[in-house]
Amino acid sequence: MRRIGSTPAERGSVGANNCPDVLELDDGDFLVIGKSHLLTAPEAERMNELGASIGEGESLVLVPRDCILAAAEQLASEGVAGAG
Fold first, then answer.
1. Do the strands 2-3 and 21-24 form a parallel or antiparallel pair, or are they unpaired?
2. Is the full-model pTM beyond 0.70?
3. Tens digit of pLDDT for each residue in 8-38?
4. pLDDT digit string (tens) for 60-80?
5. Cα–Cα dist 62/37, whole Å
6. b/e for 28-62, b at 16 or more Cβ within 10 A?
7. SS3 content of the chain, % helix, strand, coil (to 5)
8. 3-state SS class at 65
9. Contact 23, 3 (CB under 8 A)
10. Angular region, 79: left φ>0, alpha ψ -120 to 50, beta rest
11. How would you classify the pairing of strands 2-3 and 61-62?
């Protein structure tokens, strides 16, 4: 397992309860740590318009933009297909 992107502390997190993160497992899949997010009606409608849905056993997780951008930057610099 490895961290993708910067550490929470590098992104300004100072508390143990505010530590969004992206981790890559040994098999190449990703774990994302973020806040649980309940959709508002407008968000749910827009998500449906985009053809996105949340299936059984899936959860919606809110990840701060800076966390995702740091992870995307690292993956793009490593030449991961589809990143960047």
1. antiparallel
2. yes
3. 888 887 766 668 899 999 999 999 999 999 9
4. 999 999 999 999 999 999 986
5. 6
6. eeeebebeeeeeeeeeeeeeeeeeeeeeeeeeeee
7. 30, 15, 55
8. helix
9. yes
10. left
11. unpaired
